[in-house]
Q: What sequence folds into this?
């Protein structure tokens, strides 16, 4: 329940509620609200259900939110490399998840109970069953609209097809939902007509309504169709040009520059390795990493420091982080000290690789910098390294942290930095 | 680690021919490369025909990715083990592949000798955890250690497993983990395998939630 959880590091973006597109019962409204408010989804569902007893308030609220809230699928964005791999079918697609139907059954039973209760208390009003059927039909149709919308987003053909706008990619489920929705709505009308004994009037109203819809479709249809065509062409063109510009800019900025540099340093193996390594790191993070909050988080700062050391000294520095906290004035020195330790390892140890590990748990941040190089005896160190050690130890001391250097000749070196942090624990809190 | 009986038979699955031949030439001396494949269908065919000890499996593969290969041949060939090999360090790929049945995950920048060692480890039935994978595991199981009452065993790491994961994340080799914790390498391997099993089977709330936030499963 901590406001400082990993997910909220990008605080500058306003949090907005969305409907959850996965793990939902109806429209994902309750699940989305639960995510937004940070409560268990069951409670939200219960509130909707109970307030339905108040003259259908819950249903009205749910329907309203369903209309207003955007689906979260719209905001899901993976790194470019992952999205490309997904588009080309190189990654497993979204598989159907094992869903827990228990909730659904419990809710259904409760809903049925409320329906029966309302009917018993109020007596079966003429309106009751038709309205219930109608609401059910609308819900099914809206759900189909959601599915179609979601499929439209992942659709790469770029063309907006009116038929697909309704049916999505088709499939039995889409047709079934459509048929069920329309059937329920028609059923509601028929039921109402039969109950009020005005079958004839109802038929006439139905026919008139259908004729009206048909006329409207004939009038507005072509216009809508062309609009859809224009829209989809425009969208496709824009997406293409943007993508091309992005990729071109990135390739030019980084890869071309690096290739030019490599040609210049072709006879210097060390420099070539370093350049290739830096370019690999850069491309890899561009393609596959989540857009990381670079400077404002401790993990981001540590990665930046590691990249700098790697570039300056030509020794790969592997960074692994668990959890993250915003970088503040006590953690800045930790990153600086860690950088110092990385520089030492890269410069003096002779190791082929430096491992850096950051862990944030239970009110403290720990950083380990380890190499498998020559090591040294901490008891008799040369003056210059003593100085460096002091700059690490003292720096941490001054800010209330702890530093520890473990090393033995031939056994590598490990520097461990510990710093307590106030209440920024970053477990995967819910 | 079990003693290798003759060179391990290996199939390389990757859609880049250049990478396949690179890996092949790097490890050819130490293992027996019995086949190569470039996409899911070909991989299924080659693996079924050659029944290798270990499949080096690219995570991103035309036809549904490496996970699809494991889904289709895994149940039929229980003695074949999969070692995922990828340029992608994305959490969803790493965890998704492990949950798909791979016994380890290494990135393509791994050196030849390291790759041979990893193949041997996987062929012997053990798991290969890189520092990064250990980091992901700790992230996914974060905060689960002191709630010792309700959760099933599958859904949390024991204190020892957590210590092992932390040391691996810090860059320790299995042997170094063993001497650091005063236990045998065999015991370290047992812990790592047990973590792998939990990662594959756990239905732990936070794990699934963590995973679904990163859009996998």
A:
């Amino acid at each position: 329940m901590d406001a400082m959880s990993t997910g909220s590091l990008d605080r500058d973006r306003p949090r907005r509620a969305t409907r959850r597109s996965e793990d939902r019962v109806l429209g994902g409204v309750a699940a989305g609200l639960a995510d937004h408010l940070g409560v268990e989804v069951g409670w939200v569902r219960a509130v909707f259900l109970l307030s339905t007893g108040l003259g259908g308030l819950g249903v009205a609220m749910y329907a309203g939110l369903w209309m207003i809230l955007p689906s979260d699928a719209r905001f899901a964005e993976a790194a470019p490399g992952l999205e490309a791999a997904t588009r080309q079918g190189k990654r497993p697609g979204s598989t159907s998840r094992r869903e827990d139907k228990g909730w659904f059954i419990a809710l259904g039973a409760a809903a049925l109970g409320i329906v029966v209760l309302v009917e018993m208390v109020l007596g079966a009003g003429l309106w009751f069953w038709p309205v219930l059927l109608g609401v059910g039909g609308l819900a099914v149709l809206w759900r189909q609209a959601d599915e179609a919308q979601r499929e439209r987003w992942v659709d790469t053909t770029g063309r907006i097809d009116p038929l697909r706008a309704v049916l999505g990619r088709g499939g039995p489920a889409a047709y079934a939902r459509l048929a069920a929705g329309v059937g329920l709505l028609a059923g509601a009308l028929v039921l109402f007509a039969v109950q009020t004994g005005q079958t004839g009037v109802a038929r006439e109203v139905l026919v008139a309504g259908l004729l009206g819809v048909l006329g409207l479709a004939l009038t507005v249809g072509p216009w809508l169709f062309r609009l859809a065509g224009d829209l989809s062409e425009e969208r496709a063109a824009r997406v293409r040009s943007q993508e091309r510009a992005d990729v071109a800019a990135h390739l030019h900025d980084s890869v071309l520059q690096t290739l030019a540099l490599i040609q210049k340093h072709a006879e210097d193996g060390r420099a070539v390795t370093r350049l290739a390594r830096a370019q690999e790191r850069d491309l890899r993070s561009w393609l596959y990493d989540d857009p990381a909050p670079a400077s404002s988080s401790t993990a981001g700062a540590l990665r930046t420091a590691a990249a700098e050391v790697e570039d300056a000294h030509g020794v790969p520095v592997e960074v692994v982080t668990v959890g993250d906290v915003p970088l503040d004035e006590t953690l800045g020195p930790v990153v600086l000290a860690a950088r110092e330790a990385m520089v030492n390892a890269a410069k003096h140890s002779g190791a082929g690789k430096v491992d850096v590990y950051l862990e944030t748990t239970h009110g403290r941040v720990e950083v380990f910098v380890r190499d498998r190089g020559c090591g040294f005896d901490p008891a008799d160190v040369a003056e210059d390294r003593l100085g460096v050690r002091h700059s690490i130890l003292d720096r941490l001391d001054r800010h209330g942290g702890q530093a520890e250097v473990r090393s033995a000749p031939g056994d590598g070196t490990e520097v461990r930095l510990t710093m307590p942090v106030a209440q920024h624990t970053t477990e995967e809190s819910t | 680690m079990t003693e290798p009986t003759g060179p391990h038979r290996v199939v390389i699955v990757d859609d880049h021919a250049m990478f396949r031949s690179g890996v092949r030439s790097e490890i050819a001396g130490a293992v027996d490369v019995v086949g190569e494949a470039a996409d899911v269908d070909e991989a299924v065919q080659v693996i079924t025909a050659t029944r290798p000890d270990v499949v080096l499996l690219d995570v991103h593969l035309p036809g549904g990715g490496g996970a699809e290969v494991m889904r289709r041949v895994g149940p039929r060939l229980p003695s074949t083990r999969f070692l995922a090999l990828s340029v992608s360090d994305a959490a969803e790929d790493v965890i998704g592949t492990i949950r798909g049945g791979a016994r380890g995950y290494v990135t393509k920048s791994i050196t030849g000798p390291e790759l041979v060692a990893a193949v041997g480890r996987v062929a012997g039935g053990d798991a290969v955890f890189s520092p990064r994978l250990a980091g992901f595991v700790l992230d996914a199981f974060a905060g689960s250690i002191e709630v010792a009452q309700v959760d099933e065993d599958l859904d949390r790491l024991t204190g020892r497993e957590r210590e092992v994961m932390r040391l691996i994340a810090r860059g320790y080799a299995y042997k170094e983990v063993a001497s650091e914790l005063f236990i045998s390498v065999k015991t370290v391997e047992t812990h790592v395998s047990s973590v792998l099993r939990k990662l594959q089977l756990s239905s732990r709330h936070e794990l699934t939630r963590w995973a679904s936030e990163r859009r996998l499963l």
